[in-house]
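User: Hi! I'm working on a homework problem where we have to compare a predicted structure to a textbook description. Could you give me the structure for the chain below?
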Amino acid sequence: MPTLSQENYLKALWHLAADGKVTLQRLASHLGVSPASALAMVRKLSANKLVTYRRTTGIRLTAKGRLTALQIVRRHRLWEVFLHDKLGYQWDEVHSIAEQLEHVAPADLTERLDAFLGYPRFDPHGDPIPQHDGTLPGRSDLVLSEQPPAMYRIVGLVQTHDALLRQLHSLNLTIGQVVELRHHRSFDDVFVLRVGQNTEHIGRAVAERIIVEPA
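Assistant: Happy to help. Predicted structure tokens:
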């Protein structure tokens, strides 16, 4: 079994790979370690057939490494659902706790947790929960800031910084909420929304981080 530190590297590699080539410098910066430390760990992961590394192509997860990373992500997101839905934590509180719980690795615990929660497909932030075999549920990729006026359901977020989560929560812009995009004021780049009985105004920095689907 990978160590806690190795699991953190594998999960980081999986997240970073979604945005392109993963260089040693990029990995080190993401984890807040020196390039020398990152290289030492990459060599260990390579020896265990979890990654490959070449300067020209960067660091890549092998099939084994990707499945291991997805199992860590699966545990993390299931714990987030448990903390949010069963223990009442707010969606800006669950990530740091799940970061610790994701390393509790008995396979039967993960599967029992999944069954207890009713086999959720998405975490409290709308991120898809990897299934046991590593497959990911599909989700809309429509960003609110790029859509015409209409009714939409919020299904996810591009980023989940705590400050953003708290602001969205204060506006009742949470996962599953249906909103009406009334119009876009081009002169100050503000998006006017109808949320329940309220009219809310959000800037582009917020609107471009909200993932929606037609309601």
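For your comparison, note the following. Residues 142-214 form a domain with the SH3 type barrels. fold (CATH 2.30.30.90). The radius of gyration is 19 Å. Good luck with the assignment!
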